[in-house]
Amino acid sequence: MLLVAPLIIILCIFYFYPLLKLFPESLYRDGHLSLENYNHFFRTPLYTFILFRTIRIAAETTILCFLLGYPTAYLMASVRNPRITALMMLCIMLPFFTSILARSYSWIALLQTKGFVNFVLINLGFIERPVRLLYNEYAVLVGMVHIMLPFMILPIYSVLRNIDTRLVKAARNLGANSREAFIRITFPLSLPGIGAGVMITFILALGFYITPALLGGPSTLMMSTLIDQQVNRLGDWEFAGAIVVVLLASTILIVSIFDKLVGLDKIYK
Amino acid sequence: MKRKQAKGSTKPFSGLSCHYITGLLAILFVFLSSSLCLAGKRDYLVVTTWGGLDTEAHRIAYFDPFTKETGIEIRAVEAGSGLQAKMLAMQKSGNIEWDVITGDYEFAMINYYKKGLLEKIDYSIVTNVGDLVDGSIKKWGVGSYVEAYLLVYNTNEFKGEKRPKSWKDFFDVKNFPGPRAMHNWGGPVDNLAIAQMADGASTDEFYPVNYKRAFRMLDKIKPHVTVWFTSGDQLMQSLIDEEVVMAVSTDARAKAAIEQGAPIALEWNQAFYYLNYNSVVKNTPMKKEAMQLLNFMCRSDRQAEFTKVRKMTGSNIRSIEYLPNEIARGLLIYPETLKKVFSLLSVKNGEWTTSHMDEVDEKWNYWIAR
Amino acid sequence: MNPSAPQEKRILLIGFVTLILFFLILPTLMVIPMSISETRYLVLPPKGFTLKWFLQFFTDPRWLGPTLLSLRVALFSAVLSVVLGTLASLALVRGRLPGKRVIYIMLMSPMMIPVIVIGFAAYGMFVRFHLIGTTIGIVLAHCIICIPFSVVVISANLQRVDISLELAARNLGASARQAFFRITIPSIKPGIFAASLFCFVESLDELIMTMFIIGTTKMTLPLRIFTEIRFRISPVIAAASTVFVIVATLAIVISTYIDKKK
Q1: Which residues of chain A make contact with C34, given a CB cutoff of 8 A?
Q2: Whether the predicted model's global pTM rises above the 0.90 cut
């Protein structure tokens, strides 16, 4: 097919070709061909430990985004009043236009020991003394979910909008209750949207850098920080290449597994 | 009905997607074949700075006066993160965009030099080096400004004789209770040195790092370190908001925090310093001019100007002669203070740190991430 | 079944979603007061009231120039990525390409590889084509980063378009192109909208790829912000965000108004 050609040409010149020249470097150590970089990665407890933590945090972010994002997208797609749809769209889009840095600092101001959230909680009488909300994994999750949520909502919404409402009505007429209609019709039909949302959220979360560094404590060290250290501090591209290859392989593996699961929607066709 | 509509619009769209692709390919071709000739030798110097106040201070103290004196224009670029990656990419492709890099640590500079990213300094051009602090003259760079790492404490919390006076007190959570701040940026070597000092190690015993000893001390204090800052701004915020009662801080950040109203004092005992160096990018077409700039940046009067704007201590000891006494007295190069402080890299086996950076990083990361 | 149950459920859903939407706009709402504080730092609640940060943003060429460049680049890269992404998605979803899955993952991969690695690798190619420091170069570089977003979203939407509608149109005499522009494109409109938005904001926030391609004379807004906060987290950053928020709000309000008039 010719349609994919322009894209492939651009990517080949500026992306695949240079990357293919770079990755073999991960197979060298001090000028010799060896698997030492990979060996070092899997032998040092730090790297596998951080790899699994990164995957866990990314998965948690994705699941939270899905649990919060699907109902939002569902409601937005079912609202008939264009003004309310626009208002909801506004709420989802506005965070996009606030730079990630400004948003992270905003979260710091909100979650600080002397910050807004503690202030509200104390005045409402929920707590007596300020709680430490910042510099831990929860703060990172809050910040990451906030940044990723629109990436989950919009793809699901865009697919839900296209579902023929007559299908649902037909099911209801045939005696299905609303829950059955949702489970048998709406949800399966929205699977491609979920797939897209989950894919974007999960992959982006794996590579996240700024938010964990600002909102998290030292125990929220993630892969992106390690890669950055290798590249910017130590200048060790051979080892950095190995880390990237491992991260890429893990990502592709997880995404393929997920794709297989979501690919099940073909049954319903 | 439908049929009619469809038929009516057959013509305008026919062949469109084919045109589409041809058009795109054409645009692509124009993109790629556009050759804007790049001149070999340029007539200006490109110098990296760290942005914001740093760029401003460099411009006022060095770049503008240098242009006035020599007629060589200077373009300051603000290096974001990824300085080393970009320098390596420049060398690989042979497209040397930058001529001079300013203000980077010894660890970093040695690393760049080893990777072939820096020129050797030509000390027949860079001659204003007589009054620079120890360790300024290296084959890969010239010291530009010094930064001290020291203990700062909250003066509302600790008054009079009941104040912390050494790293030992910093680690003593019984007599000096309260949350602390330490850095988790760049090199962790100094944190390990501080821990060893707190355990009573002399400077001769720092390297090779006794990990067991250092981490045993750090384990004790870890629950009390509530802020592991990754930027100087985070540190200042925690001092101003009094989130912590003690911190390992740089002198410049501590002073800036005091200016913003933080109730803190600096303890110079057991303080140590790092030099920040300037250097010349390998294979620059402007090598001679770059060396001239480096020489210019060693001048004491210029460095004094830099100190005024940037609040950072110049490497030239005589720069204090151009500064009002109240500023000079607070500087690291003030004779009495200079006697107290030392460089972590010029103690016994100091070179160990530069050859074991990856190992230290790994051990530190593992400790801190758990 | 209790007939009022669905109604109750819906109210519960509305309440839940309202909370989520509040969570989404909360930090943005906080950025606005931070931009009017007289302090040189970001503080909450703001101390005093001043518009000097807005004045600085609009008058200082160090802020204005980068903002305009960033907007221009974001617009071009969004358009380019969405057009290319739509074509590629069409081929992937409808075409009989061999190794579809592999191509799909390859198109997704810019999202999986740290940008600094892509930037480092691609730098040499951009030098070879003399694209360093040019707007075209920055647009192309951003496109590489944006492509996965447009491919993922648009191909998900295409999967849901009922092929039978197109087939019906073709049976009724429409050409393939006609069917595409009359049936397919309108029905993936929400997807195209989401994809453009994603690409636009990704480009608007892109920092690291830009750093490699930017050259020595240009500056984008994220780069300006990044170098600025190294020393001082100035409220100008909050002011810049506030301006963007206001413009985006107006754009949405106006477009809804126009839509209604139609």
Answers
A1: 105-106, 109
A2: no
